[in-house]
Amino acid sequence: MSATGKDPQWRDAERFAERHARTVLARTDVRVTGPGSAVELDLVGIDFAGRVEHRRSPVGRSDLEDLRAAAGSFVAVFYSRSGFTKTAVLWAQEHRVALFGYTDTGYACPANPWAAELVQRAQAESEHQVRVSTEVVARRATWARQEAERREREAIADELRAEEDARRASERRRIERVRSETLLSRTVVLLLQLQVAPGALTELVGRLADSTIVSAVADSADRLSMADRPHAVTLVRSLVDDAAAALEVLTAPADRDTANYRTSRQVIDRALDALDSADGVGVTGHVAPEDVALQLRQAERCWRALVGELTKALPPPVLGTVPTPRRPRHLTSPRTV
């Protein structure tokens, strides 16, 4: 119907019908056409066409036919303040026009079965949308919670890894400090021995080369008991420390940058690392016998390489002055008187 001549109450009725279509019929795109509209409709939407009548007499069939023709294939809804004639109600149900009656107090109710079906369909669709939206929100909340938990776990894992790395670095520095102090003390003792007995270094290297202790411990590594294992590792470690001290004494300060010296130092470090692993340093719990045997065999291989380098580094023995053989007396000239 044209907007010309509509009173303010009629406009209020249109706004009420718009809210009803949006909230009750779940047609959230419905809007009032407004003054000056060219269409003969009061409410329009994507798939919705509506008329609003605010007069005192019931709406007849002709008004419904006009609405049906204007709506085309859209859903046709008619709001009337004074109701509908019986003929209009029968015709509306046959042509699927939803009829609603409303009051000035803001209440609307279906006036034919097709209108009631639209309300039920809208309620079902709204419930479905609410369920779907709830499920989407729940899934997003679950995903957000899981993502937050994952990030928290990763942060805790990173913190634990950082603490573990710091602990390992501190333990490594402690081990290196203990090794440096042991090497320094063994080297000082060997230098003092050289002051008393110049052949002490050669004697030490020879004793180390002839020792079969490391090989014997490596051969019996898988048969060592829990009580014998620390003593065997300590014995081998003492021999490695003596060899490291001998290397320091045999190597001149100018030769500390050579490849042979660096390689020998790496061999010593590998041997000590293997002994630490066999002794369970930095390991929580029991060390398996096969792991102990594996590490002791590694220490033996390093030991053989180290002893070979020490033997080659020994200076050659210094030969003394060869005495002049005495001449026989009968070949000597008689003393001149």
Secondary structure blueprint with pairings:
Layout: H1 8-23, E1 31-32, E2 43-45, E3 48-53, H2 61-71, E4 75-80, H3 86-94, E5 97-102, E6 108-110, H4 113-196, H5 200-210, H6 213-219, H7 228-250, H8 259-279, H9 289-313
Parallel strand pairs: 3-4, 4-5
Antiparallel strand pairs: 1-2, 2-3, 5-6
Helix pairs in contact: 4-7, 5-7, 5-9, 6-9, 7-8, 7-9, 8-9
Structural summary, described in words:
With 337 residues, the protein is α/β, with parallel strands linked by helices. It has two domains: 8-111, Trna Endonuclease, Chain: A, domain 1; 168-313. The chain has helices spanning 8-23, 61-71, 86-94, 113-196, 200-210, 213-219, 228-250, 259-279, 289-313; strands at residues 31-32, 43-45, 48-53, 75-80, 97-102, 108-110. It has a six-stranded mixed beta sheet with strand order 1-2-3-4-5-6, with helices on both faces. Strand 2 (43-45) and strand 3 (48-53) form a beta hairpin. Helix 4 (113-196) crosses helix 7 (228-250), helix 7 (228-250) packs parallel to helix 9 and helix 8 (259-279) packs antiparallel against helix 9 (289-313). The radius of gyration is 53 Å and the shape is rod-shaped. The protein starts with 7 loop residues before the first helix and ends in a 24-residue tail after the last helix. 23% of the residues are buried.
> SS-based structural class?
alpha/beta
C-alpha end-to-end distance = 173 Å
Instruction: Give the number of DSSP strands.
Output: 6
Order of helices and strands: HEEEHEHEEHHHHHH
Tell me the strand order in the biggest sheet: 1-2-3-4-5-6
- How many individual domains? 2
The biggest beta sheet, please?
A: 6 strands, mixed
Q: How much helical structure, as a percent, in the residues?
A: 55-70%
Estimated radius of gyration: 53 Å
Relative strand content: 5-15%
Mean pLDDT rating: 87
Number of helices: 9
Extract low-pLDDT stretches.
1-5
